[in-house]
Amino acid sequence: MDSNELIKKVRKIEIKTRGLSQNIFAGEYHSAFKGRGMTFAEVREYQYGDDIRDIDWNVTARHNHPYVKVYEEERELTVMLLVDVSASRNFGAVGEEKRQMIAEIAATIAFSAIQNNDKIGALFFSDRVEKFITPKKGRKHILFLIRELLDFTPQSRGTDIAAAVRYFTDALKRRCTMFLISDFIDSGDYRTPLTVAMSRHDVMAIQVYDKRDSSLPDVGLMRVQDFETGATRWIDTSSSRVRKAYGKWWYDRQQQMATSLRSNRVDFVSVATDEDYVRALMGLFKNRSTV
User: Fold this and answer.
1) pLDDT tens, position by position, 240-267
2) For strand 78-84 and strand 177-182, is the pairing parallel, antiparallel, or unpaired?
3) What does the pLDDT average to over 108-129?
4) Hey, how many other C-beta atoms are within 10 angstroms of the C-beta on 118?
5) What is the mean pLDDT of residues 42-50?
6) H/E stretch holding 206
7) 3-state secondary structure at position 205
8) pLDDT, tens digit, for every residue of 133-146?
9) In this predicted model, what pLDDT tens digit does every residue of 29-45 receive, in sequence order?
10) Which distant-in-sequence residues (6+ apart) come within 8 Å of 63 by Cβ?
11) pLDDT at 18 over 80
12) Cβ distance 43 to 67 under 8 Å?
């Protein structure tokens, strides 16, 4: 797209998603994602009920009166967005294209992160790692990230979640919070890389799909194309057998995804392109904050 059109789209997404993160997600995000630990803040006089293990003996000795150390949560996090940029994200039959919703979800998380003074970075992947954006803070960095989400052209068309997760785990040694955003149309096995990632990081998954990914309409002969391989074929959607076979393929794929994520205790949510992703994200955040 040309630069003027891109600027307009970036601005539109910024207005929408920054408003969401300010008005809706601020509290949920903060309570859902904990800081790295507790850091020393100050000392104060001992009060009844304080833990004696927190007594600062050096200060106590100087003042001849017990003082305790006070700690506060170290809030700053590093948040990474692992974003699927494979060709299947360009599909959009019901609602908006998957790529548009993926960009909005990623932007909403990014603005929520910077409001909490967290760093935000991204890794774009297809069947290879396409781009790595180093985690940083600030509005300028967020706008750069959104522009890339909208206008990035990958070199490959396929999907390899396992390769993306392995790269992420190798690249970031310090613990961080990772969002895996994809339609999860991937025939590979990514359970082992997820197991390794979960042992070091806080991992969540968001599936964005189109209703036509999950079922075929009864409209007679239809020419369909696999976005990732480019292969095309004609199918008879008036056949109930064909529609049932397609539905079973989708169901089996969803079960495989759910099993892979649940076996690694990864919190996840699925949202269709004609659904409200705000509600989906709120559910994901609230579920984490109550655990």
Assistant:
1) 999 999 899 899 999 999 999 999 999 9
2) parallel
3) 90
4) 22
5) 81
6) strand 202-209
7) strand
8) 999 998 899 899 98
9) 666 665 545 555 578 88
10) none
11) no
12) yes
Distance CA 105, CA 264 (A): 23
* Distance, CA of 124 to CA of 163 (rounded, Å): 11
Alpha-carbon distances of 98 from 22, 207, 210, rounded to whole Å: 24, 10, 7
Q: Rg of the chain's alpha carbons, rounded to an integer?
A: 23
CB 237 within 8 A of CB 219: yes
Q: Give the residue carrying structure tokens 């904050």.
A: 289
Is residue 81 within 8 A of residue 113, CB to CB? The reply is no
Residue 2: phi, psi to the nearest 5? Answer: -75, 165
Q: Which two tokens stand for residue 160?
A: 């390899």
Is 103 buried (19+), middle (13-18) or exposed (0-12) by CB count in 10 A? buried
Determine if the pTM surpasses 0.85.
no
Distance CA 81, CA 102 (A): 11
What average pLDDT does range 49-59 have in this prediction? 84
In the numeric block, the tokens 């068309």 are attached to 157
Yes or no: say if 272 and 210 are a contact pair by the CB < 8 Å rule: yes
Tokens at 14, concatenated: 């910024």
Asked if 146 contacts 14 with a C-beta cutoff of 8 angstroms, the reply is yes
The Cα 52–Cα 215 span in angstroms is 62
Contacts for 103 with CB less than 8 Å, ≥ 6 apart: 13, 146, 149, 150
Q: Which two tokens stand for residue 191?
A: 């359970």
